[in-house]
Write a structure and sequence with these properties.
4 copies of one chain form a homotetramer. The first copy, chain A, is mainly β and about 300 residues long. Chain A has a single domain, classed as Jelly Rolls (Sandwich). Chain A is about 10% helix and about 35% strand. In chain A, the strands form 4 sheets. A 9-stranded mixed β-sheet of chain A has the order 1-4-17-6-15-18-19-21-20. In chain A, strands 3-5-16-11-14-13 form a 6-stranded mixed β-sheet, with no helix packed on it. In chain A, a hairpin with a 3-residue loop joins strand 9 and strand 10. Chain A is globular. Chains in contact: A-B, A-C, A-D, B-C, B-D, C-D. Chains A, B, C, D: This is Acetamidase. Chains A, B, C, D: It comes from Sulfobacillus benefaciens. Chains A, B, C, D: Pfam families: FmdA_AmdA. Chains A, B, C, D: One of its GO terms (molecular function) is hydrolase activity, acting on carbon-nitrogen (but not peptide) bonds, in linear amides.
Chain lengths: ~300, ~300, ~300, ~300
């Protein structure tokens, strides 16, 4: 099988929205491979390239939007992730002034000085680990930091996770899983980017192991099955994703969506579903650094199959 | 070896504080077994015993306090959990009006009606699972919902998790793990209770599989090694626990404590520690229902050993 | 003087953004009067028109955008409000399901039922008060709930207050005051709407005394004096406005902006400015119901003049 | 009339709780004057006494507790404030490391350095203003930062505002007003302290114009009229006070309490009360620096009388 490869023609968008023209039309079932830039559009290459000196105003360039044939508002777009491959052998993380989880920020504002700027370069090792010099190495578990459709009315920054998906920074957006996204406009207008070789839960400093990537996908359109928020299916679990501030609101959304999902699709009584979620859910923080924070709730498939 | 068994003589305290006299003096290294009541002091026994009708004003009776010989302010109390055994074959969960994560509460207040009251009785099955009728069954993973020392000045409700431990509802407070708690008063004044057969992360409805239990412990006193917040060590991971509102503040505490721990005990550079946590931590919600919410950060022991 | 009157030609936009073409070009110094629809575009007219039955998907129709000649990114747009006049003698408030400050919402989610839908019609009295039947009457203090410029990249819902202004619901956006807004795109692309006859601080139920209005304005462009967030000047006070979640982050922004303003424009030492704000600021909640919450900090002009 | 004067015999308590013996028994109707220390127990006297060097572990020494004859759980204690007089001619404010609203703190934790320590000494001027050198002067409006009763079970730090009152930092706790507090234990066990000559709303830096004071009071016991949270009555307004985190939860409590008060005491329909609050309330931040944040809702007495 020849896989259709898609590279961004011209500038990458830095928003999810209906106001950008699609770069390609995709048929459901077709396998496509998208090439994505890293979050910094490749501008940070070593300790000497300080973020404040080389970065422009926007982060997270997207590849897209893609127009998915047949997708209409009220449908769900199912995105099957077949593979995510880093396209270089080094990744970069940084401390960016007033950005991250353990610093004050432009939204959680204080009068304190920023943390120092730092750049970490990780290199792929023969054993598959990614090492920061001889200090430590982390396992590769590549995933897409941003993935989403166009909101119906708004154009939202590629730094924002919300009902349309976007910058969720959920490590489960990885190969082998299926991501469900709401379709808000004709063609869904799908985009993705911000490939991470690895990232801890919470993405504490705000920057993962950033890398350029190639993501291989297959789309399906679930007609007239609207969802409010993104969902993820892995072979072991079903997952719901909520993004909001404060963090407890993100958790409430993820939990509430799971109760609704169990009730509507798996025929649990509403209160039994709440009970099941209370006793068996996993509930992890995906990010506490983006414009909205993201929480993922997970239920074992033994309860949904 | 004969294990010393401790039952509460008289009333159970419903606070962590220095104002209750110790019920026993314990020597470090001694193995003791404590018997604990369930969170409702056994008053909810079936669907007909509605929480609003049978519960008193307080929840989470504690067994304790225990005076640990040699523990002084500035020390750390290390609590090795050797075993946690339910002492009956049924557990109970409920919906309590205006309590839980997917309802408004006395602190997150709305004008809406409460959710309906419900009681779920789970029974131990021959295969070790705990079943709610024929609807669903959950795996047993018993742990203590509350565990802590006395604050130096305050007396804090047994519903509150904070720097002293308390009602953290962290599933990793289980057999095989070691819990580190700050010592704030002479003798530490340790208490525990609120045994759970199982609980999902977040404890969404606010009530786990509540049960009476027997917990077998061994204490050690780490002299002059003060800690600010509780920590947990498992064979695979080191963990920090933060409890605060909003939930992001709990996460910040857990992450900040982990950075400090890695820096002070494992000789990482401060910013490398922040980086390591950013790329490898797990960050899960223990509860979003108590008077403070609790988050746990975990790092693989490959990075600390 | 003849005042140029501007009515929306065609559909009202429901976003602030650069993607809508301007409806008029305005010269700084020119006096213009804009006609605005109420937040419901006039669809709720009495107790029988329940919000859930008559409202469409969007609220807060805007009049605009206006292209202000000479305004460029990095400038500040000063909007002098000369008059705000209701254009009818009745106003409407409602309870909308899952919207407001004392109910769970789509973002602060619970499993509870919504509050009942209600409609209140207020009528202008001969004494100038606005009365709800014979129950109670409130004083008129008309102001614009939404006022803002276009963000540089995003298109943000007219329900959202943020750095560009938008749905701040600040009662001080009233006649006699001057609103400063950042200019992010050429021409600023100013819009306004959501006229309120009156509103309490916090806008507790999410809906004020909604009315159609006529607002008379004069614009000035302050060249190369960038601001981050909206500011308001009254004859008695200078004010800063922050919009974020949680509410403390909105307060931090408003306070931090005030410290910066005092430092940069009024030559206070940074820490003296912090001290002055600590001892003399007023700090009130404008709304705790919109997609971001809004807080206003105020300092008496005795300290700035 | 001779007014009974009460000075603390021995150490001042740093908690509100039932575990301290009363220092005096007071008859309702009796006028008493209490002498209070400043928040630092007088230890900060000039720019050279840096907080980190001279302060002990605890802040906000209380004068009390007072046993109010006849007060029993379920009653309300009405505290009429007849006068508040500073007992010296200088007041002090400071920046304390990791404390305040525009810095990270022990609970809102970052890896940033603290703000610099600073001390401001204000001196009373002949015109009644309090001046910081020749930089600026503020008007005196003395009030008590802490005022409260004992919780029924807990002993809460004098830095904490909650249902019992405590460290609310509400400027309306001033002469001429009446404060209503819940009675949770026999005798109420009333304490007060932390006199402020002046303070801005929000108490941004965490420290007001701290001073020692003399407060003249008269108590009344409202039998069998339980309240959940503190209330304040001024000649112009009725007020409710909520303390919680995040700040929106404090606002929800204050607003919800006001709706309940209007419904129960002033016979409004529940939804009309919500509407009235929505259109006429003032909603200001008292503090966003204490262990819980405090918000005050105010309604004009025209609506309650």
């Amino acid at each position: 099988m020849t896989i259709r490869e898609i590279r961004q023609p011209g500038d990458h968008p830095y928003v999810f929205g209906r106001y950008h023209a699609p770069i390609a039309h995709i048929t459901p079932g077709e396998v496509v491979a998208l090439y994505t830039e890293d979050a910094f559009e490749g501008k940070i290459t070593g300790p000497e390239t300080l973020p404040s000196q080389v970065l422009g105003k926007y982060l997270n360039p997207q590849t897209g939007p893609l127009y998915i044939e047949g997708a209409e508002p009220g449908d769900t777009l199912a995105v099957e992730i077949l593979a995510i491959e880093p396209t270089r052998d080094w990744a970069v993380s940084t401390l960016i002034p007033y950005f991250g989880g353990l610093t004050s920020t432009t939204l959680t504002r204080t009068l304190q000085d920023p943390l120092p700027e730092r750049v970490w370069i990780y290199r792929r090792q023969p054993d598959g680990m990614w090492a920061y010099g001889d200090r430590f190495a982390v396992s590769a578990r590549p995933f897409m930091g941003t993935i989403g459709t166009a909101p119906d009315l708004e154009a939202l920054s590629a730094l924002t996770p919300h009902m349309h998906g976007g910058n969720m920074d959920v490590p489960d957006v990885c190969a082998g899983n299926i991501v469900h996204l709401p379709v808000n406009v004709p063609g869904a207008l799908f985009s993705t980017g911000d490939c991470h070789v690895a990232q801890g839960e919470g993405e504490a400093c705000g920057v993962a192991l950033e890398i350029s990537g190639k993501i291989t996908l297959r789309f399906a359109v679930l007609k007239q099955t609207p969802i409010l928020w993104p969902r993820i299916l892995s072979p072991q679990e079903i997952m719901t994703v909520g993004s909001a501030r404060p963090l407890e609101d993100a958790a409430r959304i993820a939990l509430g969506e799971m109760v609704d999902w169990l009730t509507k699709s798996y025929r649990y009584d509403r209160w039994d579903a709440y009970q099941l979620v209370s006793q068996t859910a996993k509930l992890s923080v995906a990010n506490l650094v983006d414009t909205y924070y993201t929480v993922v709730a997970k239920i074992d498939r033994r309860y949904s199959d």
